[in-house]
Amino acid sequence: MLMRSVGLAPLLSSLLAGACGQAADPEPPVDGPDNVCTVPTLTDAPAPASALTAFAYDRAAAYDPEIQLLGTEGTVAIHELSFLSPRGTGRATGRLFVPEGAGPFAGILLMHGLPGNAEQMTTYGALLARHGAVVVALDAPFARRGGEPLRFTDADSAEQVQLMTDLQRAVDLLVARPDVDASRLGYLGISYGGAMGALFVGIERRLKTGVLAVADGGLVSHFTGPEDGGSPLAGLTCAEWRRWLESMIPIEPIKYVGFASPTPLLLQSGRQDALVPPRDAERLHAAAPDPKTVQWYEAGHSLGVTAVRARSFWLHEHLGMLAPDF
Fold it and tell me: To 5 degrees, how large is the angle CA 176–CA 179–CA 184?
């Protein structure tokens, strides 16, 4: 996820990685007197169901998956993965982790933090595969193009929508595999991946469960809370700030997490998390529908092995994976 200061924080680890708050459709802003910058603000209003059409794609279109073996880690084969992005923006890339045996296994989408990439999730992807899942870890669009993860233009909005369609296409890929049980699909996102998961679980109806670790409600809330006086937004002009907010607020994840019902959700957060303050995490927790389980840890952004173990027990219970052995 992102640090609450100018600049970006690296991932804390491949197992343990902040992300992002609430939103409403923006009203046309009007600058006030004395050069006051008036911009759209976030509210708790959820998105209308019709807004889900923004993430639609042609499921019947060819996507040309390419899978190349990179190596093995114990009984897990690790592959380089790519397929045509549904948004016509080149090929989505990532890693595919396949356990030994014929299956059928559970299927899991694993999403990294910001900045970060799928390669950094290799240790965790292999761990999940050893416990009985075929795992797809995708690169976010910013990881594919290089450069700063966020540009604070409407290009960030386009990339967030692109990520949602890429993730849906990754579900198509899992469903098409004979070694995957299509009735046992899950999403696991950490930090930025957790925040984007709040959006994805509201869009994708084929999931049996979703795990959102150290997540808040989206990039807008991440940069516009009371703790964000030094955020990169402070360096934008009023017009730039307004345009970014207008493009991002309508797709803020917290506006969509309510559509996840009846998919069971696990939300994990840290009481000492400086990147996703408890107040931001609590807003996401409140917006998430039942059935949900909220777990708090006396920890910072890196929740620790106890939280990783709890996730594994959750996946064991909901996806039929092996119980954790660590």
Answer: 80
What 3-state class would DSSP assign to 117? Answer: coil
The residue ranges of every structural domain in the chain are 49-319
The tokens describing 28, both together, are 């046309």
Q: Are 283 and 221 in contact (CB under 8 A)?
A: yes
- For the domain made up of 49-319, the CATH class stated in words is alpha beta
299 Cβ neighbours under 8 A, 6+ residues apart: 270, 271, 272, 273, 307
- Strand, coil or helix: what is 261? coil
C-alpha to C-alpha distance for 99 and 67, rounded to whole angstroms: 15
Residue 2, pLDDT above cutoff 70: no
Q: Is the dihedral of CA 87, 92, 98, 102 positive or negative?
A: positive
Question: Residue 159 is encoded by which pair of tokens?
Answer: 């990339």
Each residue's pLDDT tens digit, 113-138? 999 999 999 999 999 999 999 999 99
Whole-prediction pTM value? 0.89
